[in-house]
Amino acid sequence: MLLCQYGYDREGSAGGADDIMAHFSYWRSQIAVPDVTHKILSTLAEKFPLAVITNGNADPYACGLGDYF
Fold it and tell me: Is there a contact between 21 and 27 (Cβ–Cβ < 8 Å)?
């Protein structure tokens, strides 16, 4: 593990990596979604089933978009 090369033991490096990913995931989902986006998605969802494709590290629920899909 990379953090072991910087003096962390195996357990500490695993915990540190988990903390880093949790921090990254939190901030990755802190985006401002314009009100017009919510209006458009709401209108579309009334007429069509919507789907979402992400790169895997964005949480649609964390940024307020999850209920549309």
Answer: no
Global pTM reads 0.60
The secondary structure of 30-43, three-state, reads CCCCCHHHHHHHHH
CA distance 24 to 33: 19
Backbone angles phi, psi at 57, to 5 degrees: -115, 15
Identify the CA nearest to 1 among candidates 9, 39, 59: 9
DSSP state of 29: T
- Per-10-residue mean pLDDT of the chain, 69 residues long, equals 75 83 85 94 96 81 89
Sign of the CA dihedral running 61, 65, 68, 69: negative
